[in-house]
Specification:
The chain has a twelve-stranded mixed beta sheet. Strand 1 and strand 2 form a beta hairpin. It is an alpha/beta fold. The chain is about 45% helix and about 15% strand. The longest helix is centred in the C-terminal third of the chain and has 23 residues. This is Helicase HerA-like C-terminal domain-containing protein.
Length: about 500
């Protein structure tokens, strides 16, 4: 059995970074708190991603809250995907009670209750910053993945986007895309134009694409596509030196898996394309926390899973860290799990044979330690305790340490409806993105063009009623199609008059 002195020496050495760091708690040995051992994580390695796991009720959300608070103290903004809706209390100061007094008394840290700057966000019309994106920003490849199109249908989508670019038809929302598909399918001029310049397209394939778009609309995507488009750089705010904690409330993820996949793909793509390369900057630029990740991985499309795997591997160079919060490590795909440098493991319960398999798998993912019987202790960790292993500043895994975690300094409860309303009413970002902008885009332009074609194809009859109604005539002149209509009217009128003269002769 290892002695306490050796434990203190080894753990203190390995958990004492040279640069900036965050503090999560104190080390424990033989069930006792060791105040000499601070469990700290260097900011330099936060962008190496991580996992917070544990059974229901073991304190994962509070650990996430402490983590986000510590980052905020260092001016690092974050985005928390709040699936359960219990994270918003970070916007208000906590209150001291007997449990908190006891916890901080044991660790020797001082408790300073305080609020943190927060932005509430939504993709489904709730109170908060409305996140939107345009169809054009997604592009044909990403949109085809979201709609789960096959190779043939994806190539058609690329042709349709090319057609819209060449013809100056902006694709802002799904109505624009549907109208363009209708135009090149049902309208004679559009169909002929597409066929002569881009090749013939099967109406059956276009119909399948339309059905996929309708299915996406039924999950609430109508409000997501549009303008103003959300600028991901607005996630990087700081206030009074603290990083802003952006909270995206997605409690209805299970009923809207495709919409959520759409948002995640859009977010990953925008961050990767627009954030500059950071290299080893000393601390991350931004951290993304995905709470209840098992729901996301269970409901996510294959496309989203593949995209998450790709982004976890690539996005680190942008100074972005991604952290998954779930119940057991096995909820996270192996290809993603292998990329996570930091692991915070709360208690797991071995009630069933499958539970015990998950425990064994979890223990195998941690460094071997002489200080704990990991397989036994992982089932007996108390609330607010966890196994932690991370990467030091050289990228080497730190020893597994039983940690007595800090309590949040902010409120450990949700905001009331009144507090949510007050918070959002003061937000400059809510005001910036609140009103949808309905510019003239493909839908309006093609509708006008199709109406004009109908007018031009209709026979023009000169009558007394036409002369007797100057207001109607003026209305036609003032319409969008007025100029073209008058040209047609003059041409047909001239033919009519010449015909009369010829008859007299």
């Amino acid at each position: 059995m290892a002695d306490k002195a050796k434990f203190i020496q080894e753990l203190s050495t390995r958990y004492t970074p040279k640069g900036e760091f965050i503090t999560l708690g104190k080390g424990m040995f033989n069930g006792e708190i060791v105040t000499e051992v601070d469990v700290t994580i260097p900011l330099k390695t936060i962008n190496r991603h991580g996992l917070i796991a544990g059974a229901t009720g073991t304190g994962k959300t509070k650990t996430l809250q402490v983590f986000a608070e510590q980052l905020s103290h260092h001016g690092i903004p974050s985005l928390v995907l709040d699936v359960k809706g219990d994270f918003s209390g970070i916007a208000e100061a906590g209150s001291e009670n007997a449990i908190i007094e006891e916890r901080y008394g044991k660790t020797g840290f001082s408790y300073e209750p305080q609020p943190f700057p927060v932005e509430l966000m939504t993709i489904s019309g709730e109170k908060g910053v409305q996140l939107r994106a345009t169809v054009t920003e997604f592009g044909p490849l990403l949109l085809s993945k979201i709609l789960d199109l096959n190779d043939t249908q994806s190539s058609i989508m690329s042709i349709v986007f090319k057609y819209s670019d060449d013809k100056g038809l902006p694709l802002i929302d799904l109505e624009d895309l549907k109208k363009l598909l209708q135009y090149v399918t049902d309208n004679d001029q559009g169909k002929a134009d597409l066929k002569s310049n881009y090749g013939s397209i099967s109406s059956a394939s276009l119909g399948a694409i339309l059905r996929s778009i309708v299915a996406l609309e039924q999950q609430g995507a109508t409000g997501f596509f549009g303008e103003p488009s959300f600028d991901v750089h607005d996630l990087l705010q700081t206030r009074d030196g603290k990083g802003v904690v952006n909270i995206l409330r997605v409690q209805n993820i299970q009923s809207q898996p495709q919409l959520f996949s759409t948002f995640m793909l859009s977010l990953f793509a925008e961050i990767y394309m627009t954030f500059p390369e950071e290299g080893d900057s000393g601390k991350p630029k931004f951290v993304l926390f995905i709470d209840e990740a098992h729901l996301i991985f269970n409901e996510a499309s294959k496309t989203l899973l593949a995209q998450i795997e790709t982004m976890v591997k690539l996005i680190r160079s942008k100074g972005v860290g991604i952290y998954f919060i779930t119940q057991v490590p096995g909820d996270v795909p192996e290809n993603v799990l292998s990329q996570l440098g930091m692991k915070i493991q709360h208690a797991l319960r071995g009630f069933t044979a499958n539970d015990r398999k998950e425990i064994n798998k979890a223990v195998q993912n941690y460094p071997i330690t002489e200080y704990y019987d990991s397989g036994q202790l992982i089932q007996n960790l108390g609330i607010g305790e966890a196994f932690i292993t991370a990467l030091d500043e050289k990228g080497i895994p730190t020893p597994l340490v039983h940690t007595y975690l800090l309590s949040p300094e902010s409120r450990m409860n949700i905001l009331s409806d009144l507090e949510v309303a007050e918070l959002t009413s003061k937000s400059a970002l809510v005001a910036k993105y609140e009103q949808a902008i309905n510019k003239d885009s493909a839908y309006e332009m093609l509708t006008s063009r199709m109406e004009q074609a109908v007018k031009e194809s209709a026979p023009v009859v000169k009558s007394k009623a036409t002369k007797a109604e100057p207001n109607v005539f003026q209305e036609v002149i003032g319409s969008r199609a007025g100029k073209s209509f008058m040209t047609t009217l003059a041409r047909e009128g001239a033919k009519f008059v010449l015909g009369m003269l010829t008859g007299k002769r």
